[in-house]
Design goal:
The complex is a heterodimer. Chain A is mainly α. Chain B is mostly helical. In chain B, helix 1 packs antiparallel against helix 2 and helix 18 runs antiparallel to helix 20. Classes of the chains: A mainly alpha, B mainly alpha.
């Protein structure tokens, strides 16, 4: 069940990323054609494009967390023994999970408030919908790093007696 | 208390906690301590959508990844070889030029070493360059071209500096123009050094052949307009930067997928994923840094940092020397994107106060960071090259040092001769 959910989530992330970038390319192209053909450019397009970039960025960050591939300093990785490295890594992973989790929680409440205000970002699209990707992505990233942290801990525990 | 938190976060960062999470944690703790509601993080992250030029980041990156995925690197080397292969040290110069051009498009993400280095290293060895020279060349050239449009770090510097709004405004086009001569200086010095170091080494040159040149041009006929497109679009001012990014991406997509047919449609998801993972990572760091920078401004940190610097640094020259040392060290531990978004907001106001033009500062910043890419012990390109060419990392340290010295000379000239950067831009 969980495996199926995770597969669905990966599929959703990939699909989201691809459709967002396709959408952004189409919108930006339309805008260039309109601007250069003397027609009126779409007034909402620039704002929509920037929101699309935010969504692309957050989805990209989601995929990066899936591959544990976020930009990090790898200074001490080359100097620690495997066991200590796993311990230290699990610490950094838990810290990441906590930071993202806290930000996601407050983000969720913020989006709920925005929903009540019901302001519009562009066309008929409300601002809260544009913002919703932020707590959502942070929550998933938090859960993933929690999972990495637990995995690291487990591998330390299972290796401890032999090393 | 603050000291404990800061130390803990620095330790976590050095231990490999993702940079975005370190900054996020710092911002959360800071805002909480100042009694500000933590939903501010979401507001600040959303503020990214007010950033001009933002669309250029994913579009140029995707275009670069598409180029890297196709055989454009081979065509690039063939055409430069046909053009200048007849010169002494021709292949080394070919390597510098093609790496610089390729990196401008792919943004020094390590792709240059993987795609071009793998092509150039065996070629260099085959014609008789020593192993040490060849390895040093491909490792250090992996970040050459950072100063050329449309390189990602250059755009990112423009975005961050414009967000700060600290007087002396400049356009991204001016920044692109500013990078031309310094990048040329780096390539020129490296080429001159290659000629000198290989002077006693009889390396056969390739006779110039009009036929080969025509064949190479014909093979690369769809890609040759690409640099021209960017040149005309950005340097010529025909298009806005975001428009150039859109057109570049569309053009590269059509050329590589439909005309050369080197990227099957089914591989496209993979390329989008790989490139957008990188863009997502960078923009997330940019977003949390916006929040963190505001926190620092609220706490008067830039002002205090500024006063502190002014107390101990009394001239522009001293400032520049310290800046060089600081940036070289920074480049060795922090990746270029994080370094830009975290450090530029702190040093830009100081630099302006010392009379350094923000455009010049950007060029100095990136030129230093470029060396950081292969500075031992942790320069990213050293590890990529070590992995790609299956050589011990210490061999690569030794091989890169002479190249580092040459580029260091270039950085000194770039830093202390501002006209080099500003001649075309201002």
């Amino acid at each position: 069940m969980l495996q199926r959910f995770i597969r669905l989530l990966h599929w959703l992330e990939n699909g989201l990323l691809l459709s967002l970038i396709l959408g952004a390319v189409c919108l930006a192209t339309t805008q260039i054609i309109l601007r250069n053909s003397g027609a009126d450019a779409l007034l909402w397009a620039d704002q929509a494009l920037n929101v699309l970039v935010l969504w692309i960025a957050m989805s990209g960050a989601l995929v990066a967390s899936r591959e544990n591939n976020h930009i990090a300093i790898d200074l001490i990785q080359h100097y620690l023994s495997e066991k200590w490295l796993t311990v230290v890594t699990s610490l950094t992973q838990f810290a990441t999970a906590v930071a993202c989790g806290v930000a996601a929680w407050y983000g969720y409440h913020f989006v709920r408030e925005e929903m009540e205000y019901g302001d519009i970002a562009f066309l008929q699209i409300p601002i809260w919908l544009c913002e919703a990707i932020i707590p959502f992505a942070l929550l998933i990233i938090s859960l993933r790093y929690l999972n990495y942290g637990l995995k690291s801990l487990r591998s330390v525990a299972s290796n401890a007696p032999t090393s | 208390m603050t000291a404990i938190v800061v130390t803990a976060l620095i330790l976590l960062a050095v231990a490999g906690m993702p940079i975005f999470a370190v900054i996020l944690a710092a911002a959360l703790i800071g805002f909480n301590a100042s009694g500000i509601e933590l939903s501010v993080i979401t507001i600040e992250l959303y503020r990214i959508t007010d950033t001009p030029l933002l669309i250029a980041l994913p579009f140029f990156t995707l275009a670069g990844y598409l180029l890297a995925e196709s055989n454009s690197s081979e065509r690039l080397v063939r055409i430069t070889q046909a053009l200048i292969g007849w010169m002494p040290s021709g292949l080394a110069i070919i390597a510098f030029l093609s790496c610089a051009l390729f990196t401008a498009f792919t943004g020094a993400s390590g792709v240059t070493i993987v795609a071009l280095g793998a092509l150039l290293y065996p070629a260099l060895r085959q014609v008789g360059y020593t192993e040490k020279f060849s390895l040093g060349l491909v490792t250090s050239s992996g970040s050459l071209g950072l100063l050329l449009a449309p390189s990602l770090p250059l755009i990112l510097y423009g975005i961050v500096a414009q967000q700060l709004d600290v007087g002396q405004p400049f356009t991204i086009q001016q920044l692109f123009l500013a990078g031309l001569l310094p990048a040329g200086l780096m390539i020129g010095l490296l080429s001159a050094w290659s000629l000198w170091v290989n002077r006693g080494n009889a390396i056969p040159t390739q006779a110039f052949s009009g036929k080969e040149l025509r064949a190479a041009i014909w093979e690369a006929r769809w890609e040759i307009p690409l640099p021209l497109l960017v040149l005309a679009g950005i340097y010529g001012g025909f298009f806005a930067v975001s428009e150039t990014a859109t057109i570049t991406l569309l053009y590269v997509f059509i050329v590589e997928v439909f005309l050369y047919r080197e990227i099957p449609l089914k591989n496209l998801t993979g390329v989008v994923q790989k490139s957008m993972t990188m863009v997502g990572g960078i923009i997330l760091i940019l977003g949390v840094s916006l929040a963190f920078t505001n926190l620092l401004i609220d706490a008067d940190v830039p002002t205090r940092f500024f006063e502190f610097t002014q107390k101990y640094v009394d001239s522009k020259l001293t400032f520049l020397i310290l800046l060089n040392i600081f940036l070289l060290l920074l480049g060795a531990i922090l990746d270029i994107f994080s370094a830009i978004v975290i450090v530029v907001p702190l040093i830009l106001p100081i630099a302006i106060a010392f009379g350094v033009d923000p455009i010049h500062l950007g060029i100095i910043f990136l030129a230093n960071m470029q060396i950081g890419y292969f500075t031992p012990p942790v320069g990213m390109n050293l590890f990529i090259a070590s992995y790609r060419f299956n050589k011990p990392i210490t061999t690569l340290y030794a091989a890169s040092i002479p190249f580092m010295a040459v580029l260091f000379l270039a950085v000194i000239i770039i830093t202390y001769v501002p006209q080099l950067s500003l001649m075309l831009a201002r």
